[in-house]
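[User]
If only I could read backbone structure tokens as easily as an amino acid sequence. I have put the entry right below:
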Amino acid sequence: MSTVPALSPYSRPPATKAQLDYVDLASLDLAKFSQPGGKEELVAELRKAIENVGFLFVTGHGIEDDEVVRQLQIADAFFKQPLEVKREHPCDFDVGKYWGYREPKETYDSDATVKSKIEMLNHPKDTPVLADEQLRFDFLAPYKPEISAFSRKVHERILDPLLRLFALLLELPEGYLAEPHAYDKASDDHLRYMIYGVHSADEAAKIGNQTVKGHTDFGLLTILFPQIVNALQVQTAPGEYRWVPFLPGHVVVNTAEVLTYISAGHIKSTVHRVVRPPPDQADYERLGLLYFSRAANDFPVTTVPSPLLERLGLYDPEKADSKPPNGLEWGRARVKHTHLRKVIEHDKKVEPFVFAGRKIDLDCAPDCPSTLDTLS
């Protein structure tokens, strides 16, 4: 019987004592999902939650904090490995693949005075249809069963019920989104370990205190486990950003571009950014644990046949795309559009993402209310 090597203990940094302007997010209790009338109640809450900002808290998912801390412990140990170990499986952005280790090679300006300090490790789903895509890091091999089990649990306990609720919100059959996006279906979904290194005050000032500029996520939904080091901000109005609070047991979920695209803009993908933490946390690395839902490889990326959208004039069955592109094409093109850049320029407009003949404005300047507000 093999023994899993022990790792150094991991504990979260202390919470900030700064008085921050926190965003007020709705909270969905997924424990209601299986209760009589629970789905209807949750759909009503979800509809209200996404009216102004596509961010919400989720509770009642059955994932304990010690499970989250264990994943953070594995992530922390991985990022402390020598670079040659982490480079065993780099992300292949040339073909639009996001699985593997993402090394911080970018700079924030053309003269390279400030370098990115963001590292990522993206784990594909551990399922037979993705057997050839699995990451085989020697260091992570003993922990692979734990990582895979956690990934599946997040998908089935959080993502699946949320996709069912969004389908019901759009007046579609409950399984319309969840069944094509089941864990064992081929997709670019991934569990992410992510760490933000520490920038000095001078470095932060040079990049406008923004580690990651305003942006929206690529897929259907993003699931973010509680991060005690405050840095995430959500755009709540043109030119206005507010902090997302750390609430133990509360998972942050945000809507992403594909969900906006297939709902013809009805469900917004809200702009968010990452800034320098408050002064009492600025010297701590920020370790993150996330799950990203991408459109399934064979899922048609086009406006869904929603009765709600039809009543709103956003869907016309007579004009439905007979040969829509699929999720694999969307995801790979979107990754290449963003991640082949060598310089992160905070003060310049981002080139639109052109997909299937439609131009999607990705400029998330401070006065930009929401990406995909208009689809042309």
Remarks:
- The first strand starts at residue 27 and ends at 29.
- Residues 364-376 have pLDDT under 50 and may be disordered.
- Residues 27-360 form a domain with the Jelly Rolls fold (CATH 2.60.120.330).
- The chain has one domain: 27-360.
